[in-house]
Design a protein that fits this description.
The chain has 2 domains: 35 residues, no CATH class; 66 residues, SH3 Domains (SH3 type barrels). The chain is built from 1 helix and 9 strands. The chain is globular.
């Protein structure tokens, strides 16, 4: 199940002891996880992470990122399940897809990808 921005804000507030404030267009939390600006993701895999042409491990690799590498995460799409996580992120600098199972967005919400899906540079 994919969490929503509201659910993520609630969880973030719960764990940080923050205070929630409701608005007429949704919910916001102090220290909101949806903030402005680019979402930077960090590679958490124990070995080099393959960045793929499509959101599946069966797709050709377009790049490999070392653990700890950071890249801008543009959007998310549901794809092949990896370690219990079916979501894949489009990474800006590499121009490819990486499993969300191996990218830490540091609590930031990643928007859904528009259709048609992004493709390489």
């Amino acid at each position: 199940m994919r969490s929503t921005p509201v659910l993520r804000a609630l969880v973030a507030a719960l764990f940080s002891g923050g205070v929630l404030a409701a608005t007429t267009t949704g919910a916001a939390a102090t220290g909101a996880v949806t903030g402005d600006g680019p979402v930077l993701g960090t590679v958490t895999s124990p070995t080099a992470l393959a960045v793929r042409e499509a959101p599946t491990s069966h797709s050709a690799a377009v790049d490999r990122l070392a653990p700890g590498t950071r890249d801008r995460v543009r959007c998310a799409v549901e794809g092949q399940d990896v370690s219990g996580n079916p979501y894949w992120y489009w990474l800006e600098a590499t121009g490819g897809w990486a499993s969300a199972a191996w990218i830490d967005t540091h609590g930031r919400w990643v928007p859904d990808c528009p259709r048609p899906l992004p493709t390489g540079h």
